[in-house]
Amino acid sequence: MSGHQNGRQSVRQNGAVQAAPDRWKPHGALAMRRRFMDRLATGLSLTATCVALLALCSILLTLLVRGVAGLSLVTFIHSTASPGMNGGLANAIVGSLIQTAVAILIGAPLGMMCGIYLSDYGRGWMASTTRFVSDMLLSAPSILIGLFIYQLIVVPTGHFSGFAGSVALAILALPIVVRTTEDMLGLVPVALREAGIGLGASKWRVIVFICLRAARTGVMTGILLAVARVAGETAPLLFTSLGNMDWSVSLAQPMASLPVTIYQYAGSAYDDWVQLAWTGALLVTLGVLAINILVRVGFGRKGA
Amino acid sequence: MDGTSHASGEAPGAGSGGSGGHVVPDGAAGVMAAEVMVAGNGLAGEDFTGPGPARGFDGDRLFRGLVTASGIAVLALLGGIILVMVAGGMKAFSTFGPAFLVSSVWNPVTQHYGALAPVFGTIVTSTLGLLMAVPLAFGAAFWLTQMAPARLSAVVGMAVQLLAAVPSIIFGMWGFFVIVPLMARYVQPFARHWFGHVPGLGALVQGAPFGTGLLTGGIILTVMVTPFITAVMCDVFTSIPAVLKESAFGLGATRWEVMRNVILPWSSKAVVGSVVLGMGRAMGETMAVTFVIGNANKIGWSLFAPGNTIASLIALEFPESPAGSVKLSSLMALGTILMALSFLALAASRILLGFAERREGRQ
């Protein structure tokens, strides 16, 4: 007891000798170095964050400054035309919308089924291999997908087509939907499944009408993110839907798309084409970022 | 719940299903239990192979077959990609033999093609990109997870993720119209002025100030892969058990010391995995690099010299390659090499990140 009291007293004495206990700042070389390292790390990591933000701001600013000038009615109702012919982007915008929609119509159901397989049916090495492969496809170079579809569809059919482009985009959308579907089905409470089973529903009904319904916000998130991803893809379309200067909505013909048009126009020597490229870039970026913000803010609020 | 387990437990022995009513004394409840039991046959269908009593077709097996087929389809997709790419490149491989890999010639006139120059460009640009991206991503993840106030962290974190969502062609345009002039006007003359006469370093900065080149490609890749690596690192850093961090803080460690001595050792594999993932992404990046790489098939020391990457060479040369030609086959062969490189990197990163996920799952 007395020893304890002694200890406490000496602590108090030490505290009094050193400094005020709440802002205790030693001045030894080691302490100075540690504090310096900490400040340095703090400063550097703040700088790193700022550099990333600066890049984003620079991209958005450049797009706004250069792209807004071309936002006129003509851009939306005229198709692409020769330089000086007052062309617009109508065929590219519609082509992008069609190809993205068809890609999602192909990719999303397949991805959802694969996600269901991974979360509810898959076991053993096959499921883990499928998961592994799907995750790899998630980051696979999109240009490879383009070459693959070129060999698979364009060469046998003998011509470039909007359909080939859509299939290439579907392959890119697929792994995103697989991933989110599996994750979201995993979050559905077991009690919900049990309730469904308890009511006598068969397994597939439980999955489709109870689990998938409960997870629909999350699955929609995945599908929207897939839309955002494929809407801006260029590389796979270069070898599949090729691009088209004229108005065409046929999936069997080469089809224009915003990213490919941007690619063709940005490097050209004509001012009006470059202007259209910037406007197209602004449209694509705004669309893609709007979907992303919508998904993240909307979903974040619901998740919390 | 109880009724269900009874029903499914008894189902195979119950035959017609009507006799299950004795489990619950009450008549009405008994009928319900019987119904549950009949349906229970469907849900226990994995084991129960006989025909469902009085239910006929239930769709469970069809559904099971359907989703399994879609799983197999994903596997087949990867197999198909590998097969098609290798088959497409076969002509080039058989024409040039192993020399294709070590030859740096790319001459459409003499129909002689080699892969070395674009492979060199791919590896140099993605390495340069990663050298800059890793410190940036680490710093951003450190700040976002350990230092920033929660609200600010959420907003800034989202902004960084938006950077990842920007389509790659936009990065290309931005690089071409913003970064390239910067490089040509300031960075390159500056570098040549200061380092041009230093032995060793001098070779790295030679060349006319075009603004395009390997380093510019690396810078664009840095901006593109930083958000990816940041996202993975943030996930990893937030998944560390709070006890570990708090005990280190309790011992008086600074934030940097906690990061250096606690968080990094704990998450080292996943951090390496995130870097390798960034490498895989950087190697396969096409459009952004195509704008700024300069399109020249040569190998040199200079960081400012125009070069080429596999992906950008494919994108640039494809329109001039007729179907069935040796040139197209050479492009496919290059694609095969790119596929091997990036799939290796992606597989390695999945395995490394898998370690971390498994550890999390166990806790």
From TrEMBL, chain A:
It comes from Acetobacter musti. Keywords: Cell membrane, Membrane, Phosphate transport, Transmembrane, Transmembrane helix, Transport. Pfam families: BPD_transp_1. The chain crosses the membrane at residues 40-69, 89-111, 132-153, 159-178, 206-228, 276-295. It comes from the Bacteria. Its main location: membrane. Gene3D superfamilies: MetI-like (1.10.3720.10). This is Phosphate transport system permease protein PstA. The gene is pstA. It is a multi-pass membrane protein. Belongs to the binding-protein-dependent transport system permease family. CysTW subfamily. It is found in: Cell inner membrane; Cell membrane. NCBIfam families: 3a0107s02c. The keyword GTP-binding does not apply.
